[in-house]
Specification:
Blueprint lengths: L17 E10 L2 E11 L4 E5 L6 H9 L6 E6 L12 E4 L10 H7 L6 H14 L15 H13 L5 E5 L7 H16 L3 E5 L3 H7 L2 E6 L2 E7 H6 L4 H7 L7
Parallel strand pairs: 3-7, 3-8, 5-6, 6-7
Antiparallel strand pairs: 1-2, 1-4, 8-9
Helix pairs in contact: 2-3, 2-4, 3-4, 4-5
């Protein structure tokens, strides 16, 4: 799928709405995800926040089909997740998962369709948008942490995915690298990709979020427009989190 589709002209919807219904996941007798209903649709950037152990990263893995729930189900556009539509879901983890190849080969690997020349062209465009074109032939393992994360994001965006799921993509990055990642996320949003971002960074959420989903103890306790959440959180847990207080129960 080419880059450049706008929210109003995208007609190739394959996975949205991405829906979770009654999700339950248990490990060692503990409910990590407790009867969650969650829908990803529309446009903009949805931020998922909550304390450590709230279940945020697990929820993302359930949405992509990387984990199977003990109860409930996940559907992409009304159907079960499947490999054929997987390129429509971009996923970037906190720690970049990269091949032991050059930067451009990492992106090209995600573009199996077309001639090698066509894949090289598209991979080069993706690297250019990430500001990495000058490092195209550099082994991915030799890139800095921020460059590796931009490469992972460029690879995820090479298909112009319908939805982009990000799990703490700026953790442990310096301000310059964080700004570069946020610029890429904003560009994806402008191109019509729905973004779901997990972050612990309240300032980052304020910069990027259109709406907030707040998780605590495996449950969604609040979901609201970003301005409403930050100005007047409706839940006790949300208020404590924004005030920097520990959430014990």
């Amino acid at each position: 799928m080419p880059f450049g589709l706008s929210p109003t002209c995208r007609s190739d919807r394959q996975v949205l709405p991405l829906m979770a219904s009654g999700l339950v996941l248990e490990r060692a007798g503990r409910r990590i995800i407790d009867n969650i209903d969650f829908t990803v649709d529309g446009d903009g950037i949805s931020v998922v926040m909550g304390p450590n152990g709230a279940g945020k990263s697990i929820l993302l893995r359930l949405l992509t089909g990387l984990l199977t729930p003990d109860a409930g189900k996940v559907t992409w556009a009304g159907l079960r997740p499947d490999r054929a539509r997987a390129p429509s879901v971009g996923l970037v983890f906190q720690k970049p998962v990269l091949l032991r190849r050059s930067a451009i080969a990492n992106v090209r690997y995600a573009l199996p369709a077309g001639s090698r020349a066509e894949r090289n062209r598209r991979a080069g465009e993706a690297l250019a948008r990430a500001g990495l074109q000058h490092l195209a032939n550099t082994p991915a393992r030799l890139l800095s942490g921020g460059e590796q994360q931009r490469l992972a994001l460029a690879r995820a965006l090479a298909h112009d995915p319908e939805v982009l799921l990000l799990d703490e993509p700026c953790a442990n990055l310096d301000p310059a690298a964080t700004a570069a990642i946020e610029a890429l996320v904003g560009d994806a949003r402008a191109r019509g990709t729905k973004v779901v971002l997990i972050t612990h960074d309240i300032a980052q959420a304020k910069r990027l979020a259109d709406d907030i989903t707040f998780l605590h103890d495996g449950r969604i306790v609040e979901r609201s427009p970003a301005a409403s959440f930050f100005d007047n959180p409706a839940s006790k847990a949300g208020r404590a989190y924004l005030e920097g207080r520990l959430l014990i129960d």
